[in-house]
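Tokens in:
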């Protein structure tokens, strides 16, 4: 059943009650239940019910029934208008403004370590000036850019680009809208007894302010934030996978960002961050500050593998934190306003899947069936490498 609001004269302040059957994640799934939502959330709820296999019994607003018979064709639904600064529609997202054959030449403005003393490895925060481009190189939160390192490969050809998740909001760290920042870990591995340094990551970690860098993109629409100020956001990150999460949290909680965007986050955000040591936690002070300033809206849960133990006495990984909080996580996911974002090394996915599978099974849910449904509903976002 489809419900049209295209011809309704209701204002955003109206409240609707949707009676639905077969919708939910626990014992509620087989029962008939009522869900009350404001007008601004009605179409999102209807889409979620449809994609998760629910059946709408009725939709009412006060004494007026808005339910249309299934046999009648419904007019195409239109979401209520929102301020332009708040909305991020896929068609409006910039993609490939600059390509490898004609990259933008950016200038490094700063490059500093993000790690505390005693940390493992090397991770830097690097910012580039994007001024002077035609077109202007701009982006939105959740996108990536490509970097083409200087020099040539073993065959004498220019190095190929590497993609990095953007770690700054569209306004940049300086809020002037003309910079982009990356969070880069230097890749190192052993081969035949020799330490090999990653080409592009070493190039970036070593680069000096004032240097010129070839930049491509932006690319990516998988990790975009919902436009809804009342959305709930669960973030699962390891290492430099924190980059897009930093953009979301700055957009949500930095006062200047909120003012510039005319977008005031009112939902709940929950960050699960994995790191080997406390010294390896990236942007930790910022996240602690957000938690202290917005305790009703933000939770910050850490998994520090070499310093904390899980329930079995082993190392504490992010999947262990997911298992510990599985019941509450599922209560969030049951809400159609909740989005889940995962970013980090591809190796984190099996552990998260295992934790979610066990948590779902305890509630009689098949995770392998639910996950693609969430993906289809654009509520499950993954970017691993």
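Residues out:
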């Amino acid at each position: 059943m489809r419900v049209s609001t295209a011809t309704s004269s209701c204002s955003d302040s109206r409240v609707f009650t949707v009676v639905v059957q077969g919708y939910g994640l626990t014992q509620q799934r087989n029962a008939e239940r009522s869900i009350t939502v404001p007008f601004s959330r009605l179409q999102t709820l209807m889409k979620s019910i449809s994609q998760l296999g629910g059946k709408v019994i009725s939709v009412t607003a006060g004494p007026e029934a808005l339910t249309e018979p299934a046999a009648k064709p419904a007019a195409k639904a239109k979401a209520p208008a929102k301020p332009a600064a708040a909305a991020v529609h896929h068609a409006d997202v910039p993609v490939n403004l600059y390509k490898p054959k004609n990259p933008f030449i950016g200038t490094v403005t700063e490059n500093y370590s993000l790690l505390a003393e005693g940390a493992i490895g090397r991770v830097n925060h690097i910012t580039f000036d994007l001024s002077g481009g035609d077109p202007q190189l701009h982006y939105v939160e959740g996108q990536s850019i490509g970097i083409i390192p200087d020099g040539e490969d073993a065959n004498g050809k220019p190095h190929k680009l590497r993609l990095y998740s953007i770690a700054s909001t569209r306004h940049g760290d300086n809020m002037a809208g003309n910079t982009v920042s990356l969070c880069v870990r230097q890749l190192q591995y052993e081969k035949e007894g020799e330490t090999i340094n990653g080409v592009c990551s070493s190039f970036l970690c070593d680069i000096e302010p004032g240097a010129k860098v070839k930049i491509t993109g932006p690319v990516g629409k998988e990790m975009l934030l919902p436009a809804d100020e009342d959305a709930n956001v669960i973030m699962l990150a390891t290492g430099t996978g924190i980059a897009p999460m930093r953009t979301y949290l700055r957009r949500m909680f930095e006062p200047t960002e909120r003012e510039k965007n005319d977008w005031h986050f009112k939902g709940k955000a929950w960050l699960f961050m994995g790191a080997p040591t406390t010294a390896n936690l990236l942007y930790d002070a910022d996240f602690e500050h957000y938690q202290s300033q917005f305790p009703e809206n933000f939770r910050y849960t850490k998994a520090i593998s070499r310093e904390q133990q899980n329930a079995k006495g082993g190392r504490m990984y992010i999947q262990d934190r997911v298992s510990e909080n599985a019941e509450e996580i599922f209560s969030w996911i049951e809400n159609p306003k909740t989005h889940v974002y995962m970013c980090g090394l591809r190796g984190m996915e099996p552990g998260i899947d295992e934790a979610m599978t066990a948590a779902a099974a305890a509630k009689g849910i098949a995770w392998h069936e639910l996950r693609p449904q969430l993906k289809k509903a654009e509520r499950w976002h993954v970017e691993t490498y």
